[in-house]
Amino acid sequence: MTNQTAPVSHNYCPSTIHLPHYATNTTPVFLLIAQFGILWIAVLGVALTIIHRARPTASRSDQSAFVWMCLTGSIHLFFEAYFVINHQSLASSQDLFGQLWKEYSLSDSRYLTSDAFLVSMEAVTAFCWGPLAFFIAYCIAAQHPARHALQLTMSLGQVYGDVLYYATSLFDFYYHGMEFCRPEGYYFWFYYFFMNFIWIAVGSYYAYQSAVEITRAFGKLGELDRKRKSN
Against a cut of 0.85, is the pTM above it? Predict the structure, then answer.
């Protein structure tokens, strides 16, 4: 007689996805979000302290950019890297990041099934954009001339990654009839849409800022070159 493993009950969509090692979260949702929020606040506080000490005369714009780079770098390099490293065992994880990913996966169950696109995309985000964000923060503090070239590169990469993230999910929904989000609007609009749209909005802003600064710098360089040639 063949032993068969009984299907594990879960609340993810579609209900047919196979999660043999799934374990229900042991921490209430509000505590998970509160703990994650505390980590964010701690990063913000440390980042503000560093920029105030390293560059006391920094403009509010540069202070905000420094804080954002530290925050997005921390999320990429630690939270998203956690997913990349642990994607195969994520469904059974009970530590803070594991439970947070399982909670988020109610809006996109692909995170629990080692989806090839998500693992690849998150790997690039974690191990390329994560360290780069911290280096850009250093460039802001040190007023390094490479700041805007790197900021433009990373910001465009973040926007591109999010656009692909939305696009692949929508493609599966409209062409394959696959729905990965639970029907409750909270999961779609807050988890799936809003939490990812932050990087599209902020990334677009910093990409635009850097494009303007680079264009202005080349404009000044061209003007100086014309003056030099006319003398």
Answer: yes
